[in-house]
Specification:
The structure is a single chain. This protein is α+β, with helices and mostly antiparallel strands. The chain has one domain: Gcn5-related N-acetyltransferase (GNAT) (Aminopeptidase, 3-Layer(aba) Sandwich), CATH 3.40.630.30. The strands form two sheets. The chain has a four-stranded antiparallel sheet, sandwiched between helices. A hairpin with a 2-residue loop joins strand 2 and strand 3. The protein is globular, with a radius of gyration of 15 Å.
Length: about 160
């Protein structure tokens, strides 16, 4: 059965801010001792930003399904790379419906619209097959225990 959902910019659907912040905080930040309010603040920045950060939300009407963000930098060790797809999260019961791919596609399109020539992400090594299947190219391995991937955009003009 096909899952129906929409991808929206969080700025257009701010009612999902608490859900997005909670999922990202629990997935990556809580265990490091960060406050939920810190993560919520990062999402709030995107509500007024002109370019980045921007968060995208997958939802089925009022049901939160997932999130991803387009941010300036996701790795202090590689400040030369920008922008980044970050904090991809799809609720466990909603996985395998293409929601993660749709969220990533929205972030890629936003980066392309903003004129960036390429976009990056970092992920644990066990996520390699997922990103490789979606045309992400591995460019560095084991940087702060993460792999770095890139997609380059080509305008088609010479």
């Amino acid at each position: 059965m096909t899952k129906t959902y929409e991808i929206s910019v969080l700025k257009a659907r701010p009612q999902f801010l608490d859900d997005a912040a909670d999922r990202v905080w629990n997935a990556w930040w809580r265990q490091d001792g960060h406050e939920l309010g810190f993560i919520k603040g990062l999402f709030e920045e995107g509500l007024t930003a002109e370019t980045t950060p921007v968060a995208f939300i997958a939802h089925d009407n009022a049901e939160f399904l997932g999130t991803v963000s387009l941010i300036d930098s996701d790795m202090e060790a590689r400040p030369q790379y920008t922008p980044w797809v970050a904090a991809l999260w799809v609720d466990e019961q909603q996985r395998s419906h293409g929601i993660g791919s749709a969220l990533i596609k929205a972030a890629i399109e936003k980066a392309r619209e903003q004129g960036f020539p390429e976009i990056y992400l970092c992920a644990e090594a066990d996520k390699h097959d997922y990103y490789a299947a979606r045309d992400w190219v591995l460019i560095e391995e084991n940087i702060d225990d993460l792999n770095i991937y890139r997609i380059a955009f080509y305008s088609g003009s010479s």
